[in-house]
């Protein structure tokens, strides 16, 4: 069974578009919103490295190990970051959602939980995945908390797992959501998104 790129995934707050080189300038502007590459425990591309990072992700797509997206806010039309399906195991099937970053101005707007809802929905409802995995740096407490809020459970910690560009040896925290857990996770995410849509000034879409 091949897990092909699902194409564009559209929600009420955010749209996930297949990553392309044409997104370069918009992604550059999003990365500069908060300068997240300066956080040592993240892997956000620098302005100088954006083209290389886009090409790296597209290269992994050609190899069949990654399906990358560009995230765009529906209310402003602005690109806000990147996310992917990665570490694809088509035989099980099982995937990881990762290599995600979002501009600071988009954080707390509901776009990230809806992005996860779109990706998880495709993984479980279309691909019938047995589980979807999330990984993050042990020191990235914001990311760990965000993954836990999705409803994912911590599986464990891979000690001395990676050596990022920052030069230290990273411990990686692994979380997952299994197929039986998905209905409850979906309800929780839909509730979070509905709260954002109900806020004053929120976009009234669809």
TrEMBL record:
Gene Ontology terms for molecular function: acyltransferase activity, transferring groups other than amino-acyl groups
**UniProt keyword list:** Transferase
Protein's UniProt keywords contain Transferase: yes
Name all N-acetyltransferase domain ranges: 14-153
Q: Which InterPro entries match?
A: Acyl_CoA_acyltransferase, GNAT_dom
Q: By what name is this protein known?
A: N-acetyltransferase
PANTHER family for this protein: BLL6696 PROTEIN, N-ACETYLTRANSFERASE DOMAIN-CONTAINING PROTEIN
